[in-house]
Amino acid sequence: MVTKKSGEPSPESIARTNRQRLAQEEGVRAMADVEQKAVAVRKNMERLRALRQSREAQESAQPAPSPKASKRKKAVPK
Fold it and tell me: On the chain, which terminus has fewer CB atoms closer than 10 Å, C or N?
């Protein structure tokens, strides 16, 4: 590659600068997309945690069935 001293950038230099600019813009978009997905995952985890805690609270509020009641069988008429 022959360098020019005239102050004008070479076509290769212009193309390289353009590729670098495009790569940087794409990187910024990719990072924003990754962050957006991470936020969505955290919100979903928070929602699921709240549902689980609510379900566990309801289960603990209900009295547990006694072991004898669950083992009892109906009397079979003869």
Answer: C
